[in-house]
């Protein structure tokens, strides 16, 4: 039961937030902190159960258990550990945001979105089956759209939110397709079951298709190449949001899924090549270090070994800590100085010493400096890359590229430590006021913020240091169950700070050295890296494709929905003809001719002959309206006579009377319309219409013949005939059907009549006074 | 007989469609009326054609035609009447409001 | 008065038409007829009067608000159906029985008659409303 609470509490809290916000006003953030902390607390309380090997589970057989769709949660090591990260960092973010947001911001709305997002993300990680995961996945897309576009009055924010939604949404669609295929292939969507049947899944002919589709979902969400387009534009969100989205949640959802399906998919060549290559390319692109770190994790999952699984999982947790810390530090900087412009930000360490230290810790952790947590997972990364070198010359590429990517990350981190904080301060710098939604102090002197904003950063930095010095704690409580879940079976490992003078250590030293050199030359290299990542005009392609799509659909709508009745009729009739033609084309013989056609009596033949003549006369004399009406009337009367021939007295009577009234109506209206009207359609149109009409008439003729020739059983008709007298006390079966057996239809019919009459009345009586 | 009926129905459908594609509202209303007739006759052709066997219970019981199709058509005739009436009023009012009864114009020719 | 012959014939025929339409409705359950046909016949009869005489005169003779007529008809039809609920049957489930009416002998009645009357009223109201509104327009 506790497991459900983890998701439900933030969700309910979110829904209550708008109303509560009116009560609490500025203090609404504390509500969010409380809700998030409660979820975190619940998760902590589950520690015992997770470690005892009995992960808490909850499920309900709804909505469609026979189809594999049920609500189910499962807190195994991977889901539980990740949820701890989400809820924990979420609490810190809420606390931070409470102090970060200025008073004019709509706080209640902000925390509503944030809590919604948090509960959706918790749903993703705790879902026990793929269907639930996908649903919560899409919810995170929706919630992140709201969050990224929070400052929706800014064009950039709207653009960024829209772009993120489009790209991750497309990926989500692919993911849905993949899950459906998986269900069709195996008959289940439950993750535990799929893990147990991994061999079966991998042997299935659809394996590659499922793999590609699921990976599309993963790569779009985690901004891997070539879907990394949306990440930079998504940075237009308020900093706490960016911190949350890009360190612990949204982009992490992709790699979470990667870990989730890892035991199901790993081992296959396709998995390795696709995942690791995409990851490596992404890592090298790393113009934004978030993308590159995620690339690193992706590469490791691709390798599919125990060590790689450990390294990737470890790095996910480490990355959450230092990345969130870094984002929050950036937030502090722009909150205090009012700007994010790198050119202005120099030497802030003097004015914000504590922030500087904490920022340095996080940045160095991300760079992989020893004694911090990033170093440990980097070492494992290098170790994994190096292990495979013996397999062939191509395999040398991996460690080389790994080091290259890490050097880029090192340079970037150094920029923050040195460039922003520990550089020379320009004493005459002018801080802008209120730019970038910060609180540029009116007197121009930024300083360390209060504990509300420093506290979370400090906590995160402390985590980096603690794990870096004493990894055993993390290893025992979180990593063991998590890696076991990702690998599919318990794994023996031990993380230590010092393994001796191993190759990975050499590589780390190389990274640091080369990084320092590159940093010194950074001005020349920055341009190169930018070109690599964006120079291929990826954004232009996106913008162009989007514009083209909108143009195309506009053209289509304008052509098909142009307001002309004729267009609509053509569309409908052509489709009908197409459908009928398609069906007939598939049959061997149409069976249009039956042996026993009834022979017509002479009178009947004359009757129908007159009927056809009258119909044609209507068309021929359509311009002379009075004549047309009279001939139409005669058509009606002839049809009525036909009903008589066909043994339908009720119909004949009704048709006769209705035709009389209709003629009167026509004449009444004719009085008020012009008497005769020359043709207005151009000849071309008339010929096309005539052709369509002839084809349509011909098809319908054949259709009627086919219907007449078919032998139809009539059980329903016999039921009515037999029960008319005993059950309804009437001999006129048609009338009995109308008022008794199918009385409800008749009720509807007279209602329609009433509405038509009222409509006609309203058209005439109710109009704007002239 | 079935052949003749089929011909009649086909003619009704073709003529009705042709009129519905015209530009003036009056022709469209004519066309809809014809299409209504056509649909009704189509329905009644779904059952066998029998002459002189109206759907009335007699003592002793005799064979009757299919009463269900007739009930359907009765409803259709009456509703068709409602629709025709409404269409006529609509055409008339449209002429009053727009000053012209040409309403099926392509975009370029609209004034 | 538009035409003397038409007016005279209308005067004679109108009551017959009304009677005949009522007859059609009454026997609709057992022979060709029924609510629709009866309603159309009545409407046609009234239209005949409209054609033969001036509209204003007709409205004096037959002061009917057709909207109300439609409403009453619908209510009657619906009411018959709901009444079945009151008596424990399903919605619109009709019953019939044999009654002994003094002077007529054995009569077979069905609750469907109430429904049919509702239909009759609606048809009369609809037809006359449309024709009436159209004919008043533009005068």
Largest sheet of chain A: 2 strands, antiparallel
Structural class based on helices, strands and sheet pairing of chain A: mainly alpha
Gyration radius of chain A, rounded: 37 Å
Number of strands of chain A: 2
Count of discrete alpha- or pi-helical segments spanning 4 or more residues of chain C:
5
Structural description of this entry:
- The complex is a heterotrimer of chains A (770), B (111) and C (139).
- Among the domains of chain A are: 308-520, no CATH class; 583-736.
- Chain A contains 32 helices and two strands.
- The longest helix of chain A is centred in the N-terminal third of the chain and has 32 residues, at 155-186.
- In chain A, 73% of the residues lie in helices and 2% in strands.
- Chain B has a domain at 24-48 and 65-97.
- Chain C is mainly alpha-helical and 139 residues long.
- Chain C has one domain.
- Chain C has helices at 4-26, 35-52, 55-61, 66-86, 112-136; strands at residues 96-101, 105-110.
- In chain C, helix 2 (35-52) packs parallel to helix 5 (112-136) and helix 4 (66-86) packs antiparallel against helix 5 (112-136).
- The longest helix of chain C is centred in the last third of the chain and has 25 residues, at 112-136.
- Chains in contact: A-B, A-C, B-C.
- The interface between A and B is large, with 96 and 83 residues.
Gist?
Chain A has helices at about 1-25, 30-45, 45-50, 75-100, 105-125, 130-150, 155-185, 190-195, 200-205, 205-220, 230-235, 240-250, 250-265, 270-285, 290-305, 305-335, 355-365, 375-385, 395-420, 450-470, 470-485, 505-520, 520-535, 540-560, 565-585, 600-620, 625-645, 650-670, 685-710, 715-730, 735-740, 745-765; strands spanning about 55-65, 70-75. Chain A has about 775 residues and is mainly alpha-helical.
Keywords:
heterotrimer; A: 770 residues; mainly alpha; two-stranded antiparallel ribbon; 2 strands; 73% helix; elongated; B: 111 residues
SSE arrangement:
The complex is a heterotrimer of chains A (770), B (111) and C (139).
Chain A: H1 2-24, H2 28-45, H3 47-51, E1 57-64, E2 69-74, H4 77-100, H5 107-126, H6 130-148, H7 155-186, H8 191-196, H9 198-203, H10 207-221, H11 230-233, H12 239-248, H13 250-265, H14 269-285, H15 289-303, H16 306-337, H17 353-367, H18 373-387, H19 397-421, H20 451-469, H21 471-487, H22 503-520, H23 522-534, H24 538-560, H25 565-586, H26 602-620, H27 625-645, H28 649-670, H29 683-709, H30 715-728, H31 733-741, H32 743-765
Chain B: H1 2-20, H2 25-44, H3 67-98
Chain C: H1 4-26, H2 35-52, H3 55-61, H4 66-86, E1 96-101, E2 105-110, H5 112-136
